[in-house]
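Here we describe the complex-level prediction in full. Unlike the single-chain runs in Section 2.1, the two entities below were treated as one system.
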Amino acid sequence: MKRNPADKMSGKWEESDLVRRACHALDIAKLTVEQFAANGYVHSTDPAKNVRSEKVLSETAILVLHASSIDFYPDVRTRIASLAEYLIPFARSERTLLGLCLEPSLAWDYALPHVCLTRLGYGDAQFDELLSRSVRSSAHAGRERVPHRVLEQEWLARGWNETKGARAITHSRAARASILSRPLDLFGGTRDDIYAFTHALMYVTDFNLRPAPLPRPRPMILGEAEAALSRSVDDQDYDLAGEVLLSWPLTGKSWSASATFAFRVLARVEDKAGFLPTPSTRIAELDALDGPQRKQLLLATVYHTAYVMGLLCVASLRPGFAPPMSVPMTASKCGSAKKILAAIDLDSPSAHWQEEFQELTAAEADSLAGFLINVGLHRRIAKRDFRGVRQLLELAWELDLANTPAASQSAQLLDRIGTLAKFKENARCGPPRDQSPLAAIT
Amino acid sequence: MKTSEQHRQLVKKLLDAKAVDFAAIGKIVAEVGPSLSLADEPGDWFCGTNRIFFHVYRVFNPGLPVEDLGELAAKAQELQR
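The structure predicted for the assembly as a whole is:
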């Protein structure tokens, strides 16, 4: 855990590097739409790897719209224009127009690329006419959606209406109903729950183009994002990690120690692999193919996480929003990192972040004590090692790191589990005199 | 009370309680088995009522480790124009 302090760069992440990464994502986007805009991707044997053309078009349109916030970079501007013009015929294809007519409750889903293009200045009056008839029909809201999907619909409607001169909507009931309004289930929740969180944030903030107020204060939201980030970085789930990392530049200029470190990890991994990888890209599967089929499979598994890295770098390129180059110092006690590392098993499985961690100074490592605690809690709860969870909480308390959502949710988990154990013991031995759930635990 | 202090107090409450019977907990976990989680069920499983047209900015994770970064880099060359 040492690096020559003289090599440390001060200040923010290199602007030129962020631009390079953003352009890389836009270049992959161009390749992706050229391959998949017309018919999507169909895997020869595994339908789970299929990708609909609508998904590719929508995700590309969102990336391009978000990139428009930094079109003062000429390299970005030319790529935006090239992509937007390529998307136009697919965004307004006959298939899409027919979908608008036949499925009004999916009108905004079909119209997503069109709305993004319209916001970029590439409007289409005929599409607007059909879209208007569809979203004004009595059937237009006839499909139930979970709150973050309602937010998506609201975001699209808001964006489209603003291009027609309507005033911006400043508050959202859907935002208050979404996961942004209450604590995430940090240890029992799934990837889909974290995606709900990240997507709700994207739509409420409108990618910092015209942000609406957050339903909870930024520190509360980021406190949970920290835990979700530690989990996804340790799991090498870089698609999710990249989206969670967006929480910082989409909501403000400051980056925590954990978020700064995570950005460095993602950047390092992207540099080593040539793109930000996911487990979906399997070498053996690629080697079994050749020619266009091989390239298509590679692109189909690679494009999405490349887009996420693009979104992250674009968000970081807004003036003042870049991550720090060095891990910021926190109030962590000296020696915290060593104590936590000694207490948690990091040998199996070994993650990419550990390589980056080795290059930190001792002070930087201590600043990441909270990150290490979160990793330890996640690993131990996943293994159902509740004794280990309690040990880690005792250490967190000693190191003054128990003031986080992850720590309190772990404590509450232990309390519930302990109560269950006591009930089982009572059933075996007969009821105790004292019925208090906490006091009876031995 | 500040949120961070609320988290601290919850942890303190747990730590101040008597030690948990981890042997009993281990027995419960072993009895129920490792595949307990309802959270692992794909999508919503109540009559498939929450069908989704397509998922924007979401990918399935097969739960396998990421491949060797060097080997992936060799494949990435194929994406260069």
